[in-house]
Task: inverse folding
């Protein structure tokens, strides 16, 4: 935990990055070797630098011309350390799912780099890319649409082995799939059943088993429990925590339920309109938020304790999230922010430890992208 | 603090149903659906009541029958396959299930209105929101098109939609999720009903917008002194707005209590399990408490107490006898107003 909180300093990572570019020129087999090499616990396994994804808006049918872009992700940087859980929270449309897709290389980044063990995966191809893909897997939000209804559970969980046969030899697959079912708490005899024969929570377990099949190092979870019933959510969260310990996994945990994110995460990043607003350890974010958006978000979450409903200060934001196709100038949050001044419209606040907290040993000294960052405890009541 | 306690206590006599007539009373309601695989018993004897100005939260997971009960009250249940074999729904003392279609139509919308979960699919995409809002006035009050439109703009103002006059001719897709939900609220409010049923009104919304919408709803409720039935599975929202709570499981109310009481001392193992499975600060890094197993299949509800296969305290009697809703008392037998628990072992659950 103490090691992880060092993340406050983005400079830490810069020397790494320049080394990396040199390595990049070497041959493919060296890249594969680097990808296969193990990473120490607490070392960065994934480093994201200035990641950008713009979806073009076009006009015309035959002669398409670009008239603008939806700036879904607009310059995001963060590190994921081996063995930790990084939570990413934000409202719908803030780009958190696009980040997941970019990390999975399901979308091609417009600009920026993603370093996996020092290799820039946005520039990899062939064998090296395949090796990376094996090591980064995903669990999807909706267990009802992310499993093919015409395939048996055995085929769904075993499909990754068709693409990466080195993980499980042909004759061994059935046994391997049954092992996986057992690991996620399903009866191994269910191997020939179809997804519709399972409940939501059980289906999500199948999705998790599929993600585990290739022994990945990183699992990206995009809202893994939000489609589940309350009483089942806790079961799946417990399972995910157990698997993390057992297989030494690193999670990127994307969700909008702040209490669940806090429970599972070591560090939390708050996104707003394609930018990272604030990032820090769970304690720094939840107990010492310095960005007004984080404060508003935390204060808006209903607390399951009727005693606190009068004493609690609530910040109710006005208006809606602006369109990412035409984001406000300067700070993106300024249109809804009660602290906004002229400076906010002119200058984009950088994600860094605020000047006033620099060098201090307080939990408020973590990265926050606000010109007027100041501490405000909004959830002390809970 | 004192203010809440007063509001929580004053409706309590209505809860027990003997003093003062409640606005709406559901008595022993049963709803079943005839399917190819058999009869699905969605609601199995639900009793609850709401008074004017009071907020009743109906808490339950998917399939617990909370929405079906609401649809039965509104009279928008698909029949067939739905059927109401038994029960009464009294609105101001009159049984709505015995009324003619015409009489019910007069109540629906003008006396009891409903807010649906998904505003995008509940609004007609090919009609402007102004048209849909003014329809309420034209159909129910026979207003002219022009007057109705003026009223529609007023309503949009009421629910704080900016520049209502310019936006009245816009279509639902031109509004954001939060704004659409406001339009749903405006539509429900149009004829100033006595009772509003809100079925997961903020589930599809983000937390910051959820806070705005719940705030607005509470403000309007105070202003018009409406009764509100809030259907939800979110324990946080319930704690914020409810006066009293009914917890549903497999089509029955397993526990009912005033809001403070329920969170402090649950008297049913299911409620207790739900509350314990909320991630808490001091439990960081530990396992969350999880209710084992799955919600029951409504085609094959377990015998005895429906919760028995998942209950940590289940005994033999739970597998054979259906527990009635016992009144919950203090250790010394003093009655706790408005509390009930459908558990054979409620004493052990609440008093340890």
Result:
């Amino acid at each position: 935990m103490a090691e992880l909180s060092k993340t406050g300093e983005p400079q830490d990572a810069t020397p790494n990055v320049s080394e990396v570019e040199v390595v990049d020129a070497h041959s493919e087999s060296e890249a594969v070797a680097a990808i296969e090499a193990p990473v120490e616990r607490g070392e960065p396994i994934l480093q994201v630098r200035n990641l950008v994804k713009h979806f073009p808006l076009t006009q015309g049918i035959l002669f398409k011309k670009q008239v603008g872009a939806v700036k879904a992700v607009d310059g995001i940087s963060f590190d994921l350390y081996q063995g930790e859980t990084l939570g990413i929270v934000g409202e719908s449309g803030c780009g958190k799912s696009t980040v997941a897709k970019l990390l999975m290389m399901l979308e091609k980044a417009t600009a920026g780099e993603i370093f996996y063990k020092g290799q820039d995966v946005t520039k990899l191809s062939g064998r090296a890319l395949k090796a990376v893909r094996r090591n980064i897997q995903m669990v999807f939000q909706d267990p009802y649409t992310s499993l093919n209804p015409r395939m048996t559970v055995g085929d769904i969980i075993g499909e990754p082995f068709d693409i990466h046969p080195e993980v499980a030899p042909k004759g061994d697959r059935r046994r391997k799939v049954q092992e996986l079912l057992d690991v996620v708490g399903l009866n191994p005899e269910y191997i020939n059943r179809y997804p519709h024969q399972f409940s939501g929570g059980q289906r999500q377990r199948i999705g998790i088993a599929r993600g585990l099949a290739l022994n990945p190092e990183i699992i990206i979870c995009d809202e893994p429990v939000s489609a589940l019933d309350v009483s089942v959510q806790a079961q799946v969260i417990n399972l995910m925590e157990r698997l993390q310990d057992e297989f030494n996994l690193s999670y990127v945990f994307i969700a909008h339920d702040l209490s669940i994110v806090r429970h599972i995460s070591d560090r939390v990043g708050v996104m707003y309109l394609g930018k990272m607003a604030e990032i820090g350890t769970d304690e720094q974010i939840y107990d010492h938020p310095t960005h007004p958006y984080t404060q508003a978000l935390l204060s808006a979450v209903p607390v399951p304790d009727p005693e606190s409903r009068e004493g609690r200060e609530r910040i109710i934001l006005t208006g809606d999230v602006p369109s990412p196709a035409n984001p406000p100038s300067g700070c993106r949050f300024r249109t809804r922010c009660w602290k906004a001044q002229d400076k906010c419209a002119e200058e984009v606040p950088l994600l860094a430890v605020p000047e006033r907290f620099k060098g201090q040993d307080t939990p408020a000294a973590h990265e926050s992208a606000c010109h007027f960052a100041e501490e405000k405890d909004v959830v002390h009541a809970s | 603090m004192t203010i809440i306690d007063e509001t929580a206590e004053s409706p309590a006599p209505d809860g027990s149903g003997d003093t003062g007539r409640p606005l709406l009373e559901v008595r022993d309601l049963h709803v079943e659906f005839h399917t190819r695989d058999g009869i699905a018993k969605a609601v199995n004897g639900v009793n609850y009541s709401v008074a004017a100005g009071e907020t009743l939260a109906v808490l339950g997971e998917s399939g617990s029958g909370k929405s079906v009960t609401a649809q039965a009250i509104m009279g928008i249940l698909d029949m067939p396959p739905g059927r109401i074999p038994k029960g009464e729904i009294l609105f101001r003392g009159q049984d709505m299930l015995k009324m003619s279609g015409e009489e019910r139509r007069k109540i629906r919308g003008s006396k009891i209105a409903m807010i649906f979960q998904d505003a995008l699919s509940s609004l007609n995409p090919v009609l402007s929101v102004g048209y849909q809002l003014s329809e309420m006035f034209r159909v129910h009050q026979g207003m002219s098109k022009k007057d109705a439109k003026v009223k529609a703009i007023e309503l949009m103002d009421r629910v704080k939609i900016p520049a209502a006059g310019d936006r009245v001719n816009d279509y639902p897709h031109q509004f954001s999720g939060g704004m659409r939900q406001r339009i749903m609220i405006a539509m429900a409010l149009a004829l100033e009903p006595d009772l509003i049923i809100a079925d997961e009104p903020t589930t599809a919304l983000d937390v910051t917008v959820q806070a705005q919408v719940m705030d607005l709803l509470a403000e309007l409720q105070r202003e018009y002194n409406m009764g509100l039935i809030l259907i939800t599975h979110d324990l946080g929202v319930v704690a914020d707005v409810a006066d009293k709570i009914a917890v549903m499981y497999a089509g029955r109310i397993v526990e009912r209590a005033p809001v403070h009481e329920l969170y402090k001392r649950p008297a049913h193992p299911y409620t207790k399990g739900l509350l314990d499975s909320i991630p808490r600060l001091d439990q960081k890094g530990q396992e969350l408490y999880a209710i084992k197993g799955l919600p029951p299949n409504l085609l094959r509800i377990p015998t005895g107490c429906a919760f028995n296969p998942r209950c940590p305290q289940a005994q033999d009697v739970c597998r054979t006898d259906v527990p009635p809703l016992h009144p919950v008392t203090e250790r010394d037998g003093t009655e706790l107003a408005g509390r009930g628990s459908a558990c054979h072992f409620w004493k052990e659950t609440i008093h340890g």
In short: Chain A touches chain B at residues 91-92, 199, 201-202, 229-235, 237-238, 241, 256, 258-260, 262-263, 282, 296-297, 300-311, 314, 316-318, 320-321, 382 (CB under 8 Å).
